[in-house]
What does this fold into?
Amino acid sequence: LGDLDGDGDLDAVVANARGGLASEVWLNNGAGTFHRSQFLQVSDARGVTLGDFDGDGDLDAFVVNGYRNQAHRVFLNNSGGLLVDSGQSLGATNGNDAAAGDFDGDGDLDVLVASQGPDQLWLNDGSGVFSALARSLGNADSRAALSGDFNNDGALDALVVSGERINGPAFAGHHTVLLNRSPAYAAAQVTLSSPAAVNADFYAAPQILQTLALPFAFAVSTDVTAPLAQPQLLYSFNGGGQWLRGAFTTGVVVDGVTPAVWNLAESGFFGRSDNVALRLVVPMQPSSAVAGSYTYTNQVAGPYLWPSVSAVTFPFRARGLQVRVVDGEGRGVAGAQVFRRPKDQIGLLAAMQDATGRPYLTDDQGYLQGRGALATADQLAALAPVAGTHAFTMYFTDMPVVQNNVGISAVQRPNLAASGVQTLTITPENTLLLFDLDIALEWDARNDGNFLADLEAAIKRASDLLYDVTVGQAALGEVRIHLDK
It folds into this structure.
């Protein structure tokens, strides 16, 4: 399960393990109804693990093949929910399950495959291209793999569940714990507490953190002899697949157990996620020459691979800046669109939409789905369809007519101690009619760019005039151009 198309709900990738059937991708419409969007040409797949393997901000898929030593496959997301075969054929073992995690500490997701033969660790180069670890891991009939820091040393370990049978149908129970002995973690250790009240063993705790300032604490092991620099805060919407730069509310000085506060507003955290993670990176040996830069010229190499140490929290649920559309009684309105004009800009408000141009809609509780940007003094408007025919659609809006002018809401400066939700209230008194228009041309004008540009400008101007004359109560909606009629 994972949000493949970036619309804020959970989609599914199904591994079909019998009959040579292809695996399937099912997209969620936000109400729990799924439609099959594509087949993945991997027959007899036994497992799927999702993660942002190429670091572009969306979820990709590693499909485990479990039939006659067929290769495992990697499918990369095109940012719209379409999984594209990367062309990689990995290994020739009968796999059963996989666990994704950063096993080598380089900031990207690797994959451990539990197999009917030797288990295999596949290391990611950061772009979604995998190579096998030089040695195999065990030789049991492994059925499942889990990852986690089991010995609290800051390195990601693994638990491999055996399915081997001994003297009958009972499972042998010879499960294996694989401890990570990477030298990357030898120089120093960082411990990091989650902003959530409890950890839920690699699943997000049920509480949704609502405020824009989330406190946490961290500590660096006392055996570090190198001086420590200003820590860097990163956050992830998808449990560690892609990391974005975060912001503290104030400067942080590393000294023992250090309290800190994550500023979601300054970090640009928009929307809600059920799989948020924080990562703290503490650089060592800061340069005194240029603030924020670190040099290691002519220095003796230490027992570490990188010039910094880091730690990652368990996942938790959080809501940052978000827009909610409600009716006059405070109930959430589903299916509404939200339009935005950035501060200090002129012109039309633009629909908040995904990378493919598809507008975001509000869910059953009125919250706008998807990701975006929101800043103080941005202007917002909400439109919720309530009725319509083939010729027009009627919307309720949050834009009242005040002294022959239309009022537009502005984003208020966020209060870090409170929720970051911007509430837009639509009412029947604020009604907008959008009239659909069919225009028939007697010729095919697709090759006449100047004419089409003039026609588009004229249609927009006509809609503007209609909107102004009716004081924000009517405009043109969908305009359909019919050529050569």
Remarks:
- The two ends are 48 Å apart (CA to CA).
- Residues 449-469 form the longest helix (21 residues).
